[in-house]
Amino acid sequence: MQYDELPKGKFKAAVFDLDGTLLRSDKSIGPKTVKAVRKAVASGWYIAIATGRHPKSAQRYLEQMGVLTRRTLAVCFNGSALINVFDYKNSGSKDAGFATLHEDCADALEIMRVATEAKPFHLNLHAYAKSGLCTENTNIFSMREIFHSGVTFADGYDFLHIDARERFYKVIAVGESADLDAFRASLSAYVKEHFEVMRTDENFLEFIPHHCSKGSALYWLCESAGIQPSSVVAFGDAENDLLMIKNAGFGIAMGNATSQLKSQADLVTLSNDDEGIALVLEQLLD
Asked: Model-level pTM greater than 0.90?
């Protein structure tokens, strides 16, 4: 499909992945993209960020663009929670205990099983529990998560002995790429049955409860907004964006996206550094 063939006039919402999509390589948002997103908001669109991160990250970038309104939402933790970001900010932007529009969490037994299977592979875990971010230790990979999330965390967490009352939005195994590959190949049928497993980074293997994903959370988003998936345009670049791209009315892969995502998208736009989002929105809102 060419840009001049884009189906105008049918969309009511835009959903953006963060890293590699809305954000340029230096983690900034380009001026053309900001202008286009603001135009979408002025046209009455819902705006949502779909991310593996905590809602604080969604709030930060929505505020940077100047588009934080009652119609801004966030799919967080790669699909296990949907947040109204306006309400989240007004609640005090909590690190933990925040309200969700929808959520699906793993229980202690499920997380302990992941930890048990990870142990032989010299990997570390960190996880977003209902009570907050928890880490086994301050390794370089988990520290990256802490830096980007901007939330407080509990270090020295024992994932093999978890309070039975705790619930988790997701757990991440972190370490060297080859060790993660070996771990993923060894996963038991139990873990595969209870989690959506996705590689989100060379050093991150994520476990999302009960096969939640950005794609399944897209349906929560549409239900909350009172719109149909066919009226959503979604942008992404990586494995964890695949179902979102497929379930949206119009799925767009960035020029820097994986070949798998490009093959499933309705359109491949310019890269994140070349502000491919702006190019598409300008055409749809023209």
From this structure: yes
